[in-house]
Amino acid sequence: MKKKLLGSIIHLTKGKKPHTQATTPKNGFLPYVDIKAFEKGIIDNYADPEKCLLCEAGDVLMVCDGARSGFVGKAIPGVVCSTLAVVSAEGCNKNYLFYYLQSIYQLLNTRPKGTGTPHVNLDILMNSELLVPPLAEQERIVAKIEELFSQLDAAVAELKKAKEKLNIYRQAVFSSVFNPLHDFQPLKNYFDITGGLTKNPRRSSLPDKRPYLRVANVYFNKLDLEEIKYIGVTKEEIEKCSLQKDDLLFVEGNGSKSQIGRIAMWDGSIEGCLHQNHLIKGRQTNGIIPRYAMSFFLSAYGRKQILDAAKSTSGLYTLSVNKIKALKIPYCKEEKQNEILERIDAQISEYESVSKTIEASLMQASALRQSILKLAFEGKL
Prior knowledge:
- Helix 5 (135-178) runs antiparallel to helix 10 (334-376).
- The protein has a five-stranded mixed beta sheet with strand order 3-5-4-9-6.
- The chain is built from ten helices and 22 strands.
- Strand 15 and strand 16 form a beta hairpin.
- It folds into two domains: 3-132, DNA methylase specificity domains (Adenine-n6-DNA-methyltransferase TaqI, Chain A, domain 2); 182-331, DNA methylase specificity domains (Adenine-n6-DNA-methyltransferase TaqI, Chain A, domain 2).
- It is 39% helix and 20% strand.
- By secondary structure, the protein is an alpha+beta fold.
């Protein structure tokens, strides 16, 4: 059976921006189908369907513009977002086409067109070759793909459960070493606690632009520095909000209670980096090793204290400089602190080893998914 150029059979119709939108359902309006709507089933907006492209349940949608260009999903009924397109192909079952487009997503996403906003490279898409067997054979291939994917999903779910259990074990490690300690003292006795930069429109006019950390960069004992933004600052702000290696960073607020007070230590990897006001900084002044303090606030005892401090009368959770200052930490001599850290390191090394194995298995599962699709569209499944 010969392959066909996708360009000879494909139909790609891009969505249009609706004349009127609303954040709540209105009479005659339909769900505005964007990436979040077709990927997660979350509808943020509704649109007047007049002169717009509509989609039905199960239609194949492709992201045409933006960082996820080339990504495909299955539609829910509604109005197609202007960055998406409905895709179909002559002689192709919708699901068969959907899985084929999934198989070339990496190629489309890593080789977009455009110097600013990336766009799907239509030359690559149209010149892709696809086997188009009879519909009955397409259905058999789709059924086989979904059978194998189902088995793979079950294995991935078990790996994720194991990962969750490891996270519980990790917190238990921190909790176990702090269990017998006492002599709790206010954190402000050992750390200088300060706030950070407040974002506002005037900053764009300031000539001195510096890298700064946001909430999105700080997790539990982990920094995510993949995306670093810059902000205009004054000389005084640089002095106040600059980060030094081993500074503690507390997340001030978050929509999720479990994420309030995430804490990490600055690694000094970005010279001249500052922090925004939603991150509260703790700089060691005396007596307590920063990593010892961080480890305590990662334990169940430290987390409870943070959540108790963060809770407000309205039921919301948020921290402040004064609330962080008032947190208490078990004081002991530096020799004892180092002993506790050594015990943590010994147990966490076991955790890290198992965690790396799980992460490797999850990556293998992702690669296996692509291998299944490759075999399917080479006629070998």
